[in-house]
Specification:
Layout (H helix, E strand, L loop, with lengths): L3 H19 L3 H12 L4 H6 L10 H38 L17 H15 L3 E2 L5 E2 L1 H4 L25 E2 L4 H10 L4 E10 L11 E11 L4 H16 L5 E8 L2 E11 L2 E11 L1 H6 L8 E8 H9 L12 H4 L3
Parallel strand pairs: 1-4
Antiparallel strand pairs: 2-3, 4-5, 5-9, 6-7, 7-8, 8-9
Length: 331
């Protein structure tokens, strides 16, 4: 005759197996495991009644209980494995990429002609052994003028219409202040190129802008001469334009160089002014604590916009600042 406890075990097994077979997710499956086989589960509750059994019935019902537990655990493991496999397959199906489908077009960005011109200039001078230096765009009168041999009463200040700020500072009118700041913190020999944005109160037209970009070149060492300056500029022009163009130097004047010259390049049959240059004035050397009897140097400066306009045949400088996609897509 079947004991009540044995009947409860058989009923438990049938109920649990039906529930396990019907489960469709791992979370519910884990809840069923706890419900039937956990420490406070239904199997444990049934086994507590074994204390009322006689000594001859306990081993038999204990064996039946173990069989029920093992059968349920085996079914739980099988169902868990099946659900995990189904979950993996569903994930693979959802994440499958059809490599035969056409890709989604994303328009590629283009480098701005000013940026590409600056990069080309820097690549050339880095290749010649120069380092890159930068400085603040908001400057003091000392760095922008006085240390560059342009005192307050110097007529050269009229050549550079300056934006002055309320606190006495100003927006730099050239990148030459970078030279002063660099020389103050470095001892010769020095070879640097200083790119940056500058500001002047120019009337905006096809060839002028109140905001533009300059590159300053500086070399300080013992024994540097104007010949070294000419050789450097000719090599720069050759690499910039891709060929050894005719170059001429015209005598000119800059407060911070002596002697000074303007540089013209013969481009497409016409002489084109491209930069100013000269030997660093001894007063500039003294301002930064260099001995002008021991060191000499040369400097050159030019506008990036002019080179960009020449190289890309741009007829109006304002095109460079309008962010017109029709214009930028050409580059």
């Amino acid at each position: 005759m079947t004991s009540p406890l044995e009947s409860e075990l058989q009923t438990l097994q049938q109920t649990a197996q039906t529930a396990i077979a019907a489960v469709t997710d791992l979370t519910t499956l884990e809840q069923l495991r706890i419900q039937y086989l956990g420490k406070k589960g239904e199997l444990s509750l049934i086994l507590r009644g074994m204390g009322k059994l006689g000594a001859d019935e306990r081993p038999r019902l204990g064996a039946i209980a173990n069989e029920v537990k093992e059968a349920l655990q085996a079914q739980l493991d099988q169902r868990k494995q099946a659900l995990q496999q189904a979950e993996i397959q569903a994930k693979l199906a959802a994440e499958t990429i059809d490599v035969t489908m056409p890709g989604v077009y994303r328009p590629l960005g283009r480098q701005h002609p000013l940026n590409s011109t600056i990069d080309k200039v820097l690549d050339i001078f880095v290749g010649l052994g120069y380092g890159i230096a930068t400085g603040p765009q908001v400057e003091t009168d000392y760095y922008n003028f006085e240390a560059l041999n342009i005192p307050a009463d110097h007529p050269a200040r009229d050549m550079q219409d300056t934006f002055f700020l309320g606190d006495g500072r100003l927006l730099r009118t050239h990148t030459s202040p970078v030279q002063i700041r660099y020389m103050e913190s470095h001892e010769p020999p020095i070879r640097i190129v200083a790119p940056g944005r500058v500001y002047r109160r120019d009337t905006v037209d096809a060839t002028h802008s109140a905001v533009f970009h300059q590159v300053e070149v500086l070399a300080i060492d013992e024994g540097l001469t104007f010949t070294h300056l000419k050789g450097t500029i000719k090599e720069f022009v050759r690499q910039m334009f891709g060929e050894a163009l005719p170059v001429r130097f015209r005598a000119s004047y800059f407060p911070f160089t002596e002697p000074s010259a303007e540089v013209d390049v013969q481009w497409q049959g016409k002489w084109l002014e491209v930069m100013g240059c000269g030997m660093v004035d001894p007063n500039v050397m003294k301002a930064v604590g260099y001995d002008p009897e021991r060191y000499t140097g040369f400097a050159a400066g030019f506008g990036i916009e002019r080179f960009a306009m020449v190289l890309h045949q741009i007829d109006d400088i304002r095109h460079l600042y309008t962010s017109d996609l029709r214009f930028l897509r050409q580059f």
